[in-house]
Amino acid sequence: TDIRAALADRIEIRRETSFDRDRRAVRVRETARLGAITLAERMLPAPSGVDADRAILEALREHGLSLLDWGKEAETLRQRLGWLNRGLGAPWPDVSDAALLDRIEDWLLPFLTGAASFAAINSGALSAGLMSLVPHELQRKVEALAPTHFDAPSGSHVPIRYDGEWPVLAVRVQELFGLDRHPAIANGTVPLTLELLSPAHRPIQTTRDLPGFWRGSWADVRTDMRGRYPRHVWPENPLTTAATSRAKPRGT
Question: Which residues contact residue 23 at a Cβ distance below 8 angstroms, ignoring those fewer than 6 apart?
């Protein structure tokens, strides 16, 4: 202690902020050094408030957006906004990693809570941040142009995927019986890519022309599927058959 007091003007105190991947949190280490010699080292309490928020942003800039636990809500919204940007262009925002990191103080910082842990950033906050990038007059149009689900004729609420080049609807083929127009989004201007599934949820065929499928390859599909799934409905004319999500009653 006497030595440290005598050399106080030569001792350098450093505080280093780092990201602990295992704990998904920001930590602060204080080191006392005399030249190349480390005299003491200790962990300080995690930062809070503005300091914590800034530390979170720096960790994201260094390690990337994979540090965020997006959750289904925010991830789905990001995919939908990404498709709107790719498909319709500006002013729909670019939500790629590079674009979000470039504008991180615009969309994420206002929704941080001053906690030095990524566990404190929930999917709702990320969704709100993403939506803040959308011009106010367009925010109400997100659901109309890029809905999360499709209401099938069977009554099922089927999710739409936006994780590829085109929006995809994977649905059991029986749930579309009676539908003579191809499902579309963006005010009917963008046809969904249909992944038509068997009763076991296995792919049968992919199409962007449902009426053409009914009038074309349905006959071959019906012949093949009737033998594999005899307890399900495989009508000659699917357009005059009621859509269903169930098998035939036993004994029929």
Answer: 117
For the entire predicted model, the pTM comes to: 0.81
| β-pairing verdict for 168-172 and 157-161 | antiparallel
Please compute Rg for the chain using Cα positions.
Answer: 28
**250 falls in which pLDDT band (50, 70, 90)?**
low
